[in-house]
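Open question from group meeting: does this chain pack into something compact, or does most of it stay loose? Before anyone orders reagents, we agreed to write out a predicted structure and look at it together. Recording both the input and the output here so the notebook holds the full record.
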Amino acid sequence: MTTMSEIQLTPDPRPLGKSGIMVSPIAWGMWRFGNASVDEGRRLIEAAFDAGITLFDTADIYGFNGSSGFGDAESLLGQVLAQTPELRARMVLATKGGIAPPVPYDQSGAYLMAALDASLRRLGVEQVDLYQVHRPDILTHPHDLARTLDDMIASGKVRAVGVSNFTLPQARALESFLAAPLASYQPEFSPLQLGPMTDGLFDLAMERDIAVLAWSPLGGGRLGDPKDDRGAAVAKALDVIAEQFAVSRAAATYSWLMAHPARVIPIVGSQRVERIAEAADAFKIRWTRQSWYDVLVAARGEKLP
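Structure tokens returned:
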């Protein structure tokens, strides 16, 4: 019997698509960041740096509770950077726009450029490294959106652009009109949400060298506390690896995502220092094809063909 090869992950920086920007293989997300104090916010950011994370993902909608709070996460980050400006040089800063409550979506050129300027003001910076369109506005033609994104780059306010929650056809249509290549896709992806692995998104990302940033990599917390048979089966399969390498189930999950050849970058969403720190344990794991596929079979809920 031949020995199965192992998949060894490393914490080495990797390119953000074809942008020329180098990022960490794990990102930290600020969806729930707006509720912290400035001191607490700084501690969370420093915890991410300590875990080897350099890619920080926020959005203008983060902090919005349905009636107020729009921009709160960006504003808090801006306050942290104002107090400790040296942190900005250490991070790859990504934000998103295009959700306009209660519309809900607006990616017209006038709105999106104004949204970018508002984000820059809240963040207290002149440029973001990555600007992503948060969700597709069906009423904006991809040619018009592409022109806006190209203008953002030409203005010097944005280094690279990407999309979040776009379908594969929507992303392809937009890319066909862009002067600069898309640097990133940001889909939901976890062992409980396998869509990007099977709908062609990962295949296109590999074909065109586009970075994949996975939001909700722990299934929105469902993998931490499974409520159904499928979630329990996935958790059990992950725990086999977690126990073997003495890491948490969360770290095993991040590692499972990163083992895909699309080089998925999971976005850690925790706002607790200790949970951010454990993300670095993902690199302790060595997957065999058998162990990786065991998790996939549990995630599918059926045997592979």
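Observations to bring back to the group:
The chain is about 40% helix and 15% strand.
The mean pLDDT is 95.
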